[in-house]
Q: What sequence folds into this?
């Protein structure tokens, strides 16, 4: 967990600004930061993307490897998501096996992609019961300034959309684009002193009492959610975040096209 | 090393499979100051290698028992991302990356003025985004620039390069194919101001004469890389002087 501390002055300043509907970086409460997406940044990966939300910087690489299917789903490929909060990314991050924050991050990103059926795992079967493509999504936080959930989700989605199944190398026919069906987008809100904000920075996350991540598909339907933080959210707040996620999700989806 | 192969590494014009001369470096790109949170950082490409380095510190040393009351310690972590190689690499440190981290730490200890920061730790993280032979050298080149970018007092910046042998010929800065099927590999790093060697490894098979020639080739290339490292730092701290209106 975080070892960082935030000064009372800074904390109070953030709260006072929010009362006027303002934030430290000049955004309105429901504004996102500038988003940039680069794809195909690593040739050795089967798909890759680097996404920045302001100063938050995330790298995702996709690897497709032949393996054996799970016995209860003999006709389906396997999807695995991992996240590493590497010490390069923030002074609070330590090397070693993934901690609870990294595991939660990987699982929330995984859930949005898995539950939306984004990757068509039926088309990743080579020989039923024997061999299937295993799709590894690996997330690295290169620079952490809040909201790793949305940056990682977007980087994973962008990387998957450009991924190519390396079938030729494995002698399994021609290479083909990874079969994807939709574009799940997550939007995360934080609650600070009874105000909701979107796309929180590191300082904002430090003082937020609660967090809610909502992942939607292009129909505006909900695909995954995760509430975090020790504080409660009212039902109205939850509904507000769902509305904001649908609206902002559409905007983000237009960026990746 | 030294798997038998039919690949010709040198064509009739004396050029290598990627079109380089035997003593020619791959294209090198160095950028300083690429990450926000780190005290210093650098991005380096050596041909198809892509490496990020970040420096935190001097800062409090964890774990405590490693503290040295007379100087700072340098803790390097070299890590390959899972998708940096053709097969997916299992995440986390393996024996190879532990060894590389150790020799890079030791190379850097020789130039960093650690005596100025008793009990502190200077942490250097190298992440290999994409690997194509020569990542330890690219990592050290990036780490040196990142340390300078962090303002850590140093006697010099360290350049590094590998010289190898394939088809019985010495080749500078081996690429993946040459490294896989080559007969020898000698990564090295020097302190340019003194010419002293601070990293040296060798595997494969070389005569004494070949080794001495390889060392010469490598050291000459190190001075080329040194200029690129200094350029990157100058670009990072170049200040455009605003025109003064009378």
A:
């Amino acid at each position: 967990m975080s070892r960082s501390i935030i000064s009372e002055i800074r904390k109070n300043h953030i709260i006072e600004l929010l009362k006027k509907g303002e934030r430290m970086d000049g955004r309105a409460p429901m504004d996102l930061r500038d988003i940039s997406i680069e794809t195909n940044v690593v040739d050795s990966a089967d798909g890759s993307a680097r996404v920045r939300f302001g100063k938050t910087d995330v790298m995702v690489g996709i690897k497709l490897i032949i393996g054996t299917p799970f016995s209860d789903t003999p006709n389906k490929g396997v999807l695995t998501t991992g996240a590493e909060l590497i010490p390069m990314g923030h002074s609070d991050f330590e090397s070693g096996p993934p901690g609870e924050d990294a595991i939660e991050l990987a699982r929330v990103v995984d859930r949005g992609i898995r539950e939306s059926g984004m990757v068509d795992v039926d088309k990743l079967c080579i020989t039923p019961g024997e061999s299937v493509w295993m799709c590894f999504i690996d997330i690295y936080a290169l620079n952490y300034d809040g909201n790793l959930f949305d940056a990682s989700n977007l980087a994973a989605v962008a990387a998957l959309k450009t991924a190519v199944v390396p079938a030729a190398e494995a002698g399994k026919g021609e290479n083909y684009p990874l079969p994807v069906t939709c574009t799940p987008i997550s939007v995360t809100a934080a609650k600070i002193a009874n105000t909701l904000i979107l796309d929180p920075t590191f300082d904002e996350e430090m003082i937020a009492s609660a967090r809610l991540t909502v992942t939607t598909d292009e129909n505006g339907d909900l695909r995954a959610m995760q509430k975090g933080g020790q504080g409660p959210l009212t039902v109205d707040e939850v509904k507000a975040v769902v509305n904001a996620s649908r609206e902002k999700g559409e905007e983000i989806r237009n960026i990746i096209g | 090393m030294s798997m038998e192969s039919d690949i010709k590494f040198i064509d009739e014009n004396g050029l290598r499979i990627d079109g380089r001369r035997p003593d020619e470096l791959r294209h090198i790109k160095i950028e300083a100051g690429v990450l926000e949170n780190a005290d210093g950082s650098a991005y380096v490409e050596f041909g198809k290698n892509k490496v990020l380095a970040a420096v935190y510190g001097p800062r409090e040393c964890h774990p405590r028992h490693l503290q040295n009351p007379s100087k700072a310690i340098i803790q390097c972590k070299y890590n390959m991302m899972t998708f940096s190689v053709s097969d997916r690499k299992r995440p986390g440190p393996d024996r190879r990356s532990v060894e590389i981290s150790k020799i890079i730490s030791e190379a850097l200890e020789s130039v960093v003025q650690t005596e100025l920061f008793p009990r502190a730790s200077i942490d250097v993280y190298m992440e290999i985004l994409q690997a194509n032979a020569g990542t330890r050298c690219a990592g050290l080149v990036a780490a040196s620039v990142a340390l300078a970018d962090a303002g850590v007092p140093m006697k010099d910046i360290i350049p590094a390069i590998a010289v190898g042998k394939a088809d019985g010929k010495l080749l500078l800065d081996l690429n993946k194919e040459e490294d896989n099927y080559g007969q020898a590999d000698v990564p090295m790093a020097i302190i340019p101001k003194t010419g002293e060697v601070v990293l040296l490894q060798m595997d494969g098979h070389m005569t004494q004469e070949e080794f001495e020639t390889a060392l010469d080739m490598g050291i000459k290339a190190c001075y080329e890389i040194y200029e690129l490292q200094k350029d990157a730092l100058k670009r990072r701290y170049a200040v455009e002087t605003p025109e003064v209106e009378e």
The two ends of chain A are 36 Å apart (CA to CA).
